Amino acid sequence: MDKTTLEIIRLLKKRMDISSEIGRLKQDLKLSITDEQRESEIRKKVTDLCGEIGLEKRFALRLLNLMLNESVVAQSTHKQTHLSLFVKAKDLERQGKKIIHMEVGEPDFYPPPEVKTALTEAYDNGFTKYGNSRGLPELRSALAQKHNKDSAINLCPENFIVTTGGRYAVFLAISTLLNQGEEIIVTEPAWPAYKDNALHSGVKARILETNIEEDWQPNIDKIKSSINDNTKMIVLNSPNNPTGKIISPTVQDEIMEVAMKNNLYVLSDEIYSNYAYSDWKSVLSYEYDKSIVTQSFSKSHAMTGFRIGYAIAYRQDIIEKMNKVQALCITSVSEPTQYVALKSINSEDVAKNRRIMKERLDALAKKAKGIGLEFAYPDGAMYLFATKKGSDNKGNNEGMNSYPATKKQGFDGTEFANRLLEKGVAVAPGEAFGNYQNFIRISASQPLEKLDEGMSIIEEEINKGV
Ligand code: PLP
Questions:
Q1: pTM for the whole thing?
Q2: Residue 372 — φ and ψ, nearest 5°?
Q3: CB 245 within 8 Å of CB 217
Q4: Deepest in the core among 14, 77, 239, 448, taking most CB within 10 A?
C-alpha cells in the first residue's frame, strides 16, 4: 500500500513539472491557460480507462478535476485582471499622473442621502453591536418584502442571509455547497470570481465560451453536453459583466429546465438587476428550490465601500450552510452598515442611478461605434465589451472547438490596455474575463465629460493601429 501511494505521489510531481513547463510555453505564445477541448479529451481517456480496469468513473474524474485545477493554479501567475490594472492605474495616480478610470465597475455617484442620516441614527439608536450572523432581522424582512413585490413570490426573512458584499455571498455559495472535485458550469466572458472561487475550493469550473456573433448568449446544447455525474451547479450572471447582455427569456427558461432536470444548483448573480434596460426576469421567479440569488447594494445604491450584499435561497438548509461559514469567519456583518442599508433600500436614487447609467452607456456606445469599435449593444449593466472592428481576430473564441489553441492574432486587448494607461486612460483587458484577449471592457461609471475625454484618447490610440 505504501509503495503504491508513494508511486502516485511521484507521478503527481512528474505531472506538475510537465504542467509548469507547458505553462511557460503557453505564456510565451500568449495562449489561454485552460483548453476545454483538450480537457474533454483527457476526460474521455480517463472514462475509457475506468471502464477497462473497473474503477469508479465518478471518483477518477473528481481526481482528474483536482489535478486540472492544480495545473491552472501553477499556470495562472502572470494573468492581468481588471483589478491588477486598477492597482497599476492607482500607482500612476499616486505619482501625479491624471487617469480617467474606465476600468472599474464602481459608479461615481454618491450613496443615497438616506445613508447620511442613517449613519448618525445607527449611532444614536445603538445599532453598533455584534448581531445575528444571518443579518439584521429588520433588514431581511425589508429585503423579503422588496423581492416578493418585484418577482411576485412569497419569501420570508429566513430565506435571506446578509453578507459583506455580493462577492462574499458568491464565495459562501460556492465554498459551502460543493465538494472538492465537483464541477460548476460557468459561461464566459464572466466576472472572474466565479472561476477563482471554484479554484480556491477545489471545485472544477467547466468553462463554456460564448461569442459576439451569437450575441453572447449561452448555448444550451453545450450546457447539456457538459453535464456529468460531478456537475452540481450552473452559474448565471444577467445582466452580464462584462458584456452587458441579458440572457434571452427562451435561453433562460431552457437553462432552468436543464438545471431542474439534472438537480443542479443555480447560482444567479443578479447584482446588475437595477441596471437592466430591457426585459429581465429574476431566477427567483422560477421558484426552484436549488436556486441561490446573490445581490448587493454596491451598484444599485453606489455603496461599494459599505461592503453590503446578500443571498436569497428557497431552501433554508442552503442559507444555514452559508451562515455557518459566515459566523465562523466574520461573526456578523457590520451592524451600522446593515442599518444604513435598511434605511436606503427604497431610495429614489436607485431609479435615478439607473437613468443616468443608461444615458452614459448609450453615449459611450455611440462614440465607440463612431471610432471603429465592435461590440454587442448592452441590454444592461455598465460596460461595453469591445474589440477593434475589422481586425483579424483569428483563433478567438470559437467555443470549445479551438483546439489546438492558436496564438491570438489581431487586436491585442492587454497590450492596448497597457498602452492606453500610459496615455492616461484605464480600461480592463478582455483576458480578465476569460479567453478574450482581443477585447477590452470599457466602463461607463464616470460622468459624460470624462467618458468623452477618455474615448477621444482611445480613438487616437486605435488610429495608431493594433
Ligand atoms: N458580481 C459581479 C458580476 C460584479 O461585477 C461584482 C463587482 O464588480 C460583484 C459581484 C461584487 O460586488 P460587491 O461585492 O461589491 O457587492
A1: 0.91
A2: 85, 30
A3: yes
A4: 239
By C-alpha distance, which of 111, 194, 164 is closest to 311?
Answer: 164
Whether the pLDDT of residue 145 is over 60: the answer is yes
Instruction: Give the span between the Cα atoms of 114 and 193, in whole angstroms.
Output: 31
Whether 138 and 342 have beta carbons less than 8 Å apart is answered as yes
One-letter amino acid for residue 114 of the chain: E
Higher-pLDDT residue of 272 and 394 is 272
- Please indicate whether residue 333, judged by its CB atom, sits closer than 6 Å to ligand 1: no
Q: Quick one: which atom of ligand 1 is closest to the CA of 307?
A: 15
Whether residue 231 contacts residue 208, with contact meaning beta carbons closer than 8 Å, is answered with no
Beta strand ranges found along 189-289 (DSSP E): 204-209, 231-237, 265-269
- Give the tens place of pLDDT for each residue, 327-342: 999 999 999 999 999 9
397 φ/ψ sector (left φ>0, alpha ψ -120 to 50, else beta): left
Does the C-beta of 197 come closer than 6 Å to ligand 1? Answer: no
**Residue 187 β-bridge partners:** 208
294 Cβ partners below 8 Å, 6+ apart? 166, 169, 170, 173, 267, 268, 269, 270, 271, 309, 310, 311, 312
**Closest ligand 1 atom number to CA of residue 191:** 3
For residue 304, give the ligand 1 atom closest to its CA.
15
The pLDDT mean for the chain works out to: 92
> Which residues, other chains included, contact 142 with Cβ-Cβ below 8 Å and sequence gap of 6+?
342, 345
In angstroms, the CA 338 to CA 125 distance is 13
Q: Which of 296, 301, 357, 383 to mutate to test the pocket of ligand 1 (most atoms within 8 A of CB)?
A: 296
Distance between Cα 294 and ligand 1 center (Å): 9
Quickly list H helices, 371-412: none
